[in-house]
Design goal:
There is one protein chain. This protein has one domain: Rossmann fold, CATH 3.40.50. It has 9 helices and 10 strands. It has helices spanning 46-54, 77-82, 100-110, 116-126, 143-155, 173-190, 201-207, 225-229, 236-250, and strands spanning 4-13, 20-30, 35-40, 60-66, 69-70, 83-86, 161-165, 193-198, 210-215, 218-224. Helix 3 packs across helix 4 (116-126). The termini are far apart.
């Protein structure tokens, strides 16, 4: 299991007068085998942090370390074998003309695996689909089934760290809990380290050990999940978020 450390991370878009600073000096640590949440309102920089870690955003500065090793600006195959990401929208993250078999087989081949047939079936079993779904196309799947395929694709390289960008927010409420429970089971079974972005504090409370609260691109507080559940934050903005979430849940 790998640990993740982010130090003084800055992410920006554009240059000169058009520059927008999306993340400002963000720092946090995720213990090996832990589950860490990033919460905050829309536009606070949560997903941008995940994209910077994975290399999807080229304009960043600071220090990202995995097990004490610095992540280089140019990430190679070894990095993506160690760390994978599940995106928010399962409808956009799968190629509409690629079958489930193609999606998983191509990922496995890219990472140098040989026993493709066995591994594809095992991945489908791991995410609760089974071999019957192997040759279906995305349009033949529900949103929850698509997200299970996306999770299987992320598991294919056998990563140790999984980044989860609002993995249930685009799904029907009826299947959100199923996907969250699946992820919890997979974390235990595969001994994964999680970093999860969510705007839903109840999801983070269910899934995570610690949480960083973001506002306007900055981490305003990092706190343990038990402290969050007891409504005992140190920061006034965190208290505001918790109060809003509590009022929403009771309405």
């Amino acid at each position: 299991m790998k640990s993740l450390s982010v130090r003084n991370l800055n992410v920006w878009f554009g240059e000169g007068p058009d520059r927008v600073d999306a993340v400002k000096a963000a720092s946090f640590d995720v213990a090996s085998g832990g589950s860490f949440g990033l919460v905050g309102e829309s536009g606070s920089g949560k997903s941008t942090i995940l994209r910077a870690i994975t290399g999807l955003v080229p304009t960043w500065s600071g220090d990202i370390e995995i097990d004490g090793d610095h992540v280089l600006p140019k990430r190679g195959r070894a990095f993506y074998k160690m760390l994978q990401m599940v995106f928010q929208d399962p409808y956009a993250s799968l190629h509409p003309r690629h079958s489930v078999d193609q999606v998983l087989s191509e990922t496995l081949q890219l990472h140098g695996f040989k026993d493709i047939d066995t591994r594809v079936n095992r991945l489908l079993d791991d995410v609760g689909l089974g071999a019957a779904f192997r040759f279906r196309y995305p349009h033949q799947l529900s949103g929850g089934q698509r997200q299970r395929v996306a999770i299987a694709r992320a598991l294919a390289p056998e990563p140790e760290i999984l980044l989860l960008d609002e993995p249930t927010s685009a799904l029907d409420v009826s299947v959100q809990a199923e996907i969250l429970n699946l992820l919890s089971d997979l974390r235990t079974e595969h001994k994964l380290t999680f970093v999860m972005v969510s705007h839903d504090l109840s999801v983070v409370g269910h899934m995570c050990d610690n949480v960083a609260v973001m506002r306007d691109g900055e981490v305003v507080e990092v706190l343990g999940i038990e402290k969050m559940r007891r409504m005992e934050p140190d920061n006034a903005y965190t208290k505001h978020l918790l109060d809003v979430s509590l009022n929403y849940a009771s309405s």
